[in-house]
Amino acid sequence: MSTMKAAVIHEAGGAEVLKLETLPIPTPKTGQVLIKIKAFGLNRSELFTRQGQSGDAVKFPRVLGIEAIGLVEDAPGKEFNKGDIIATAMGGLGRLFDGGYAEYTLVPVQQAQVFKTNLPWETLGAIPEMLQTAWGSLFTALHLKKGERLLIRGGTTSVGMAAAAIGKAHGAIVSSTTRNPKREELVKASGAEHVFVDNGSIAEEVMKIYPDGVDKVLELVGITSLEDSLLCVRSPGAVCMTGMVGNKWSFENFAPMESIPKGVNLTTYGGDNIDFMNTPYGELVRQVEDGTLKVQVGRTFRLEDIVEAHRCMEENRAGGKIVVLT
After folding, report:
1. pLDDT-based confidence at 248, cuts 50/70/90?
2. Which of 72, 191, 208, 319 is least surrounded, with the fewest CB atoms within 10 Å of its CB?
3. Are 133 and 116 in contact (CB under 8 A)?
4. Element (H or E) spanning 18, and its range?
C-alpha cells in the first residue's frame, strides 16, 4: 500500500473543515523515521489552529496533530527497529510539517522515542503530550517540591488530572477546581484532596482552607482566571500558566503592579520537542501500568470521525483526554 488516509485542513473554520483525504505515504530518508500511527491525542492548540488563531505559523493545507504514537515502519539509519512502539510530539509536528491526524507520519529521529509497554493504544494515545505538559509544568516551570500545596485551576482537563496524579505521587498536597459540582468525585479520583467549585473567583474560598494561600498554582483555564489564581498564592510562591481552556489569548488591560502580589512569581510553560525527549516516560509509563498514575481517557474516536472528535473537544464534553485511533 502506497497511500494513506489523513485528515487535511485547507482553510480555517469549524470542525467540518477537517477533510479525510487519501495521500501518498511519505518516504523516509536517513535521519528520519516513518511511524505507522495507531493512536493520537487531541490538543487545544490544534483547535486554535483549526480556528485560524495560529496565523502565519501554520500554512494550509496541513495535516494537523502535534503528537502521535504507533509502530516503527521504517528507519533507514537503523536508529529504531521495525515494529518498535514509538511516540513523537512537538518539534513542528502538525505545524511546520504534516502531523498525527493520519495513518502514517514522518519525523526526525531526534524527536521520537521508544516506549516499552503492553498498554492498549487507547491509553498510549493519551500519554505523549499530556504527560509531557503536566510533568514540565510541575517540575520545569513550578519546581514543585514534596509537601507543597498545589492548586490546579482546570482540574477536569486531561492535563489537570494528570498533574494531580503526578503531584500527589511526588508528595504534594493537591487541590483542583471544576466548574461542575457533579465532577468533584472525578477530580478527587485523579489525586486531589480538596475540590473547589470554580465560579471564576475562588481566592476567598481557597484562603478558608489554606489561610496563608497555596504554594503553587497550575493555571490551565488561562487569562479568564489568571488574576484570581495569583491571589490564591502565598509568598514566596508561583503561578504557571500552561492552558487556555477559557479560549482567551490575551488581556485587554493588565497592570502587573496591581495584579501580581508581592513575592509571587508568574511563569508559563509551553513544551517543545526537547521537553518531550527529556520527559521520564519510562518511569511514568510504569506508574500507569501499575495503576499509581491514572490516565483519564474521556472519549475515543476513529480517524474517520475526526470532525465529531473536534466538536467534542471544542464543547468540552470529553471529561478527559480525547484519543483518536487509526
Report:
1. low
2. 208
3. no
4. strand 18-24
Determine if the peptide bond prior to 61 is cis (ω within 30°): yes
Alpha carbon distance 305, 179 (integer Å)? 28
Average model confidence (pLDDT) for the chain? 95
**What is the SS3 string spanning 197-225?**
ECCCCCHHHHHHHCCCCEEEEEECCCHHH
**Helix, strand, or coil here: 180?**
coil
Model pTM above 0.70: yes
DSSP 8-state assignment for residue 315: T
Cα Rg of the chain, angstroms = 20
Q: H or E segment at 195?
A: strand 194-197
Confidence (pLDDT) at 244: 79
Do residues 94 and 57 touch, judged by C-beta distance below 8 A?
no
Sheet holding 194-197, edge to edge: 194-197, 173-178, 149-153, 214-219, 233-241, 264-268
Query: Prior bond to 211 cis, omega within 30?
Result: no
Question: 73: helix, coil or strand?
Answer: strand
Give exposure, 185-211, as e/b (b: 16+ Cβ within 10 Å).
Answer: ebbbebbbebbbebeeebbebbeeebe
What tens digit of pLDDT does each residue of 13-42 get? 999 999 999 999 999 999 999 999 999 999
**Burial zone of 265 (CB within 10 Å; 0-12 exposed, 13-18 middle, 19+ buried):** middle
Q: Cα-Cα-Cα-Cα dihedral of 252, 175, 181, 264, to 10°?
A: -20
- Give me the residue label for grid cell 500554512: 59
Nearest to 26 by CA among 58, 5, 2: 2
Any residues with CB less than 8 A from the CB of 247 and at least 6 apart, and which? 222
